[in-house]
Design brief:
This protein is α+β, with helices and mostly antiparallel strands and 142 residues long. The chain folds into 2 domains: 71 residues, 3-Layer(aba) Sandwich (Glutaredoxin); 49 residues. The chain is built from 5 helices and 4 strands. A 4-stranded mixed beta sheet has the order 2-1-3-4. Helix 3 packs across helix 4 and helix 4 packs antiparallel against helix 5. It starts with 6 loop residues before the first strand and ends in a 5-residue tail after the last helix. The relative contact order is 0.14.
Length: 142
């Protein structure tokens, strides 16, 4: 069976899978996304990555099952830092992780799970997520 696109096993609420997905989107890498139910993991995923965690990216010639490795692969694959001398690949991936794990996830949690954060402004956090996404789409690090 020939793969047309890489396969990404993911879980919508996993921050590691979320940041891997965002890096793939930024790198404009088309993937087949397979959402996983963590209480019913697919046999194929477990066969290629026995540790059973997401994300798992299956390429024609390798399997990448760590979010940082997926991010670094995506950066190299499409030269996301575009040779900007201010960024090394390592610094760029650290900047992306900071954006995904700190800034974006902070606002996303307060938007998606607003009932947990009684004093927070739902609209404010939605708008902050939107600003970050727009900036990422334009390849401007916020």
């Amino acid at each position: 069976m020939l793969m047309e696109y890489p396969i990404l096993y993911s879980f919508k609420r996993c921050p590691y899978a979320m940041r891997a997905r965002m890096a793939l989107v930024l790198a404009e890498i088309t993937c087949e996304i397979r959402e996983v139910r963590l209480n019913n993991k697919p046999n194929h995923m477990l066969k290629v990555s026995p540790k059973g965690t997401v994300p798992v990216l299956i390429l024609k010639d390798m399997v990448i099952d760590e979010s940082m490795d997926i991010i670094n692969w995506a950066i190299k694959k499409n030269n996301l830092f575009k040779g900007n001398l201010e960024h090394s690949e390592k610094n760029f991936s650290e900047e992306l992780i900071s954006i995904f794990d700190d800034k974006f996830k902070y606002h996303l949690d307060r938007y998606k799970y607003s009932t947990r954060y009684e004093d927070d402004n739902l609209e404010f956090h939605r708008n902050e997520c939107h600003k970050i996404l727009i900036s990422l789409e334009k390849n401007n690090i916020p």
